[in-house]
């Protein structure tokens, strides 16, 4: 009886107040789309970090015969210097941080450079012009600086490079995008809360007769307020479902079809990630409605 | 059934109290008129009983409950023991007579069976059998007030509060309403009725409580409206 009564009241309220309800749906839709986009962007960043940081390595380039670097003024790296550098990596203070050391000879490096060169710029390059390198895999890629500090001053080291630098710009861009999306989401969520508040207030005013009588005959406070709370929650949930649909479509057609088609070497977030985010969007929607309800109802349907 | 002990009510600090040191006891089954001019404190008196207001000083007991100590979540249970009827009927215009009365039971969680049993009984009692499917605007003022009384009494509360129930009705119709209230009173229900209607008070010869400027100035069995006519 009560449940049917409540549902009937909710349906009535939404019908009577349909334009307001629709605006709540739309604002929640937009705000939660931004929330979802922000979360998915962060998931993408994490996914890329996991995928790439595992593969990236610290490269310690050693002096070639005619280096322009000051620290290579002594000429090409000697076998003794190479051994010293290796000793630092494998037995020295940073040995704990080092997972694997690979020695790349100047011939191998030459081959790699020429193979990756489509333009022909490096066709004149000889292996003898290059120095060998240590490719070092770290147990924790974040500890790059420690390893760099320990090796960059050693004799025979021309330069220490962390491949992460290449990605950090991309991550910075993605993080900035996340902040923008989160900022917009926050503004829109505020708008959503205010709109839900107004909707509930209007609804409560338009049903003042009913609530007065309910109060008079001894209806419990929760039963008086529940229809209004549910109205806000239903509208907000509808907005969340639209947001989830929007994100799903974006993942399906924008990311999986289009982005993956054009830049295939990146591991993108996809539909399954949208499903991970979806429950949280619903929780946020209901939470927004709840906050708005309890901020409003105390005043308009007092017991 | 209803007891006020040295009750005062001040709405704004420093202002004249709406009720000033009022003590009254109303027994189960009493029929009591509450009279007095506008601003005499009648509405405050009723609001204290319904616990829409709390006394500034003094104790209020209703239906075995000490209202000063009643927590707000228990208030609905108190209100289920008090039927309330108003001058302006307060019916829901888009619900039929039947639905208006049933509404009072629905919203306190009664099931379909109880509603189907009690509502026709109550409409029979107030003399509206056969008009279940009318909307309020299709009824006369007296009939609308009967619907309001049916709604107030359908849950069989031990107390019925009436705030100027005949205020909007012509004298002939008012008599009918009073007969109905009297009948309800005879079932053992305590009836407390605030009114300006001297004819009715004089005719009914029930207990009269008179308030003036917040003071209790008269509490008389089988009384009349104005003291001067005694």
SSE blueprint and pairings:
The complex is a heterodimer of chains A (303) and B (230).
Chain A: H1 2-16, H2 18-53, E1 58-62, H3 79-91, E2 98-104, H4 106-116, E3 133-138, H5 144-152, E4 157-162, H6 164-206, H7 208-216, H8 221-262, H9 271-300
Antiparallel strand pairs in A: 1-3, 1-4, 2-3
Helix pairs in contact in A: 1-8, 2-6, 2-8, 2-9, 6-8, 6-9, 8-9
Chain B: E1 2-9, E2 19-26, E3 31-35, H1 42-49, E4 57-62, E5 65-66, H2 75-79, E6 82-86, H3 97-106, H4 112-125, H5 141-153, E7 159-163, H6 171-186, E8 190-195, H7 198-204, E9 207-212, E10 215-220
Parallel strand pairs in B: 3-8, 3-9, 6-7, 7-8
Antiparallel strand pairs in B: 1-2, 1-4, 4-5, 9-10
Notes on the protein architecture:
The complex is a heterodimer of chains A (303) and B (230). Chain A has a four-stranded antiparallel beta sheet with strand order 2-3-1-4. In chain A, helix 6 runs parallel beside helix 9. The longest helix of chain A is centred in the middle third of the chain and has 43 residues, at 164-206. Chain A has two domains: 2-52 and 168-300, no CATH class; 57-162, Alpha-Beta Plaits, CATH 3.30.70.3040. Chain A is of the alpha+beta class and 303 residues long. Chain A contains nine helices and four strands; from the N terminus they run ααβαβαβαβαααα. A six-stranded mixed beta sheet of chain B has the order 6-7-8-3-9-10, with helices on both faces. In chain B, strands 2-1-4-5 form a four-stranded antiparallel beta sheet, covered by helices on one side. Chain B is of the alpha/beta class. Chain B has two domains: 1-74 and 159-230, Rossmann fold (3-Layer(aba) Sandwich), CATH 3.40.50.300; 89-156, no CATH class. Chain B is globular, with a radius of gyration of 18 Å.
Which key phrases capture this entry?
heterodimer; A: 303 residues; Alpha-Beta Plaits; 2 domains; 4-stranded antiparallel beta sheet; 9 helices; elongated; B: 230 residues; Rossmann fold; 25% strand
């Amino acid at each position: 009886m009560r449940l049917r009564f409540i549902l009937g009241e909710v349906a009535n309220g939404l019908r009577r107040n349909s334009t307001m309800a629709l605006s709540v749906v739309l604002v929640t839709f937009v705000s939660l789309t931004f929330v979802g986009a922000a979360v998915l962007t962060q998931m993408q960043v994490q996914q890329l970090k996991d995928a790439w940081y595992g593969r990236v390595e610290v490269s310690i380039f050693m002096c070639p015969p005619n280096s322009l670097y000051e620290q290579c003024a002594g000429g090409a790296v000697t076998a003794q210097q190479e051994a010293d550098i290796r000793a630092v990596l494998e037995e020295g203070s940073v040995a704990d941080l080092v997972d694997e050391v690979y020695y790349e000879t100047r011939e191998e490096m030459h081959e790699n450079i020429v193979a990756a060169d489509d333009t022909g710029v490096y066709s004149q390059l000889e292996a003898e012009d290059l120095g060998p390198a240590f490719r070092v895999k770290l147990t924790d890629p974040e500890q790059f600086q420690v390893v760099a500090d320990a090796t960059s001053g050693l004799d025979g080291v021309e330069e220490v490079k962390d491949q992460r630098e290449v990605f950090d710009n991309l991550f910075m861009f993605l993080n900035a995008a996340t902040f923008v999306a989160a900022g917009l989401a926050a503004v829109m969520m505020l708008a959503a809360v205010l709109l839900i508040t107004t909707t509930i207030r209007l609804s409560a005013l338009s049903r003042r007769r009913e609530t007065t009588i309910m109060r008079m005959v001894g209806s419990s406070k929760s039963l008086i307020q529940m229809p209004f709370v549910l109205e806000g929650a239903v509208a907000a949930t509808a907005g969340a479902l639209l947001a989830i649909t929007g994100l799903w479509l974006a993942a399906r057609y924008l990311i999986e079809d289009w982005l993956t088609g054009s830049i295939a070497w990146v591991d993108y977030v996809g539909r399954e990630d949208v499903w991970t985010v979806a429950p949280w969007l619903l929780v946020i929607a209901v939470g927004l409605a709840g906050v708005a309800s309890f901020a409003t109802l105390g005043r308009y349907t007092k017991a | 059934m209803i007891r006020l002990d040295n009750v005062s009510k001040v709405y704004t600090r420093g202002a004249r109290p709406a009720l000033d040191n009022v003590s009254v006891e109303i027994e189960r089954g009493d029929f009591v008129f509450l009279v007095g001019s506008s601003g005499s404190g009648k509405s405050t008196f009723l609001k204290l009983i319904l616990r829409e207001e709390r006394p500034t000083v003094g104790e209020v007991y209703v239906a075995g409950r000490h209202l000063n100590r009643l927590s707000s979540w228990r208030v609905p249970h108190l209100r289920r023991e008090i039927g309330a009827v108003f001058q302006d009927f307060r019916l829901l215009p888009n619900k039929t007579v039947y639905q208006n009365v049933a509404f009072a039971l629905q919203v306190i969680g009664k099931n379909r069976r109880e509603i189907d049993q009690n509502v026709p009984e109550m409409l029979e009692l107030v003399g509206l059998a056969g008009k279940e499917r009318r909307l309020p605007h299709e009824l006369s003022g007296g009939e609308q007030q009967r619907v309001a009384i049916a709604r107030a009494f359908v849950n069989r509360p031990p107390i019925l509060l009436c705030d100027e129930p005949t205020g909007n009705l012509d004298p002939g119709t008012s008599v009918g309403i009073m007969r109905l209230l009297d009948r309800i009173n005879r079932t053992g229900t305590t009836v407390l009725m605030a009114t300006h209607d001297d004819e009715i008070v004089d005719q009914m010869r029930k207990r009269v409580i008179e308030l003036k400027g917040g003071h209790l100035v008269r509490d008389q069995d089988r009384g009349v409206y104005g003291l001067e006519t005694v």
